[in-house]
Amino acid sequence: MEYNHLEKLLRLKNNFSVKIITGARGTGKTTLLKNFVDTLRSEGVDEREIILIDCAADEQLKNFNRLYELVDEKSLELDKFFLLIDNADCVVGCEKTINALFVGAPAEIYLTASSDCLAEKISALLPNNCDVLKIYPPSLADYAKNFPAEDSAKLLQDYLNCGSSPVTIGASENFMPTILRGLAYEIMFDAMAKNSLQKADLLRMLMRLVAKNVGKPVTLNQLATKLNDFNFSPNVYVLKNYLHSASEFFVKIPCLDLKTGNFLRGIEKIYFVDNGLLRALRNFDDLDETTLIENAVCIELLRRGYRVSFGRFGTMNVKFVGERDGKKIFVQILPAAGNISARRITRPLRALTDDAEKILISTHSEKISDGITNLTPQNFLAGS
């Protein structure tokens, strides 16, 4: 997967745009940036024309004016240069520096940031000149490469229960909860520092509520009401800011009306970028297998480059709708427990006349037809 990311980054080279690499900590953003630098060197780019800055390594760089001054000093008398800024979201007001450099400097600009917040700010300033490359934790196929001799069923369960964040690779099962809780708290503290948030208890409780409602349509008003039950009373604006600041944890997917082709405003579902983070924020309480599969499937679709939504077709629902290169994929997930039949769960897929790939994911083989492919979670998550 790392090679594919590098390949994508190289394809963006020479585009008149700011390239922004985003993703949760530990997903390989810094490694990707360094591999890109190595590729530039191998292509014969002069060392003086490669300016690599790590904003997390120097407190002074966390001021956007100082960052601009440093780049100006390093690029003096250069006709062109590659500017690569790691941990750019450590710089308060970084978007101002990037805007000024993009307009005034002869530079190819590449950034890394943990959440999407900085990318959105830069996109607002340079709406037609941003390319965002989102990196997710390793897929099941990549995760399995670390355990080539392991039983595939156990690997799937470990992947679903603990996620694939690199910090967990090789860790003892007994220490896994401690490691994942530590990672979750690091991300929260980082989000507070980068976004000047003051209320750690509010952020922690908000993330727990979001984790409790993973895969369900939620609104800010619903979250605010639930927080009132825990003696928090944030207004919707504050809640939106806290939720947005912690976007390193999760993705939001919209609702698509499959009859009209329009997205329904104000209706979204939230999924976590890694199952381990989801379970850590749920305090490792019992989380049913179907929810874990659903969360992993959503992220896998995004990892493969699909634009993901959940679909409504009259009174029927489609778990996931993926769109990529003008083509669609429809995915339903049969609950691992319960009395819902495969025929009932695939009813909306049969009702859709769209000539698209239709998949039912189920833990056991099901007899279905009508152009619907039945895959196990292992088959789907390990595929491509």
Task: Walk me through the structure.
The chain is built from 16 helices and 13 strands. It starts with a helix and ends with a helix. It is 42% helix and 21% strand. Helix 1 (2-12) packs across helix 2 (29-42) and helix 3 packs parallel to helix 4 (94-104). With 384 residues, it is α/β, with parallel strands linked by helices. The longest helix has 20 residues, at 176-195. The protein folds into 2 domains: 2-134, P-loop containing nucleotide triphosphate hydrolases (Rossmann fold, 3-Layer(aba) Sandwich); 140-381, no CATH class. The radius of gyration is 22 Å and the shape is globular.
Keywords:
384 residues, alpha/beta, 2 domains, 5-stranded parallel sheet
Compact summary:
This protein is of the alpha/beta class and 384 residues long. It is 42% helix and 21% strand.
Structural class: alpha/beta
The protein's oligomeric status is single chain
- Helix-strand pattern, N to C? HEHEHEHEHEHHHHEHHEEHHEEEHHEEH
Q: Count the E strands.
A: 13
Report how far apart the termini are: 11 Å
Tally of DSSP helical segments: 16
Helical proportion? 40-55%
**Which residues form runs of ≥5 with pLDDT under 50?**
none
Strand content: 15-25%
**Mean pLDDT reading:** 91
Rg result: 22 Å
* Strand ordering within the main sheet: 6-8-7-9-10-11-12-13
> Biggest β-sheet, characterized?
8 strands, mixed
Q: Shape from CA axes?
A: globular
| Overall tally of structural domains | 2
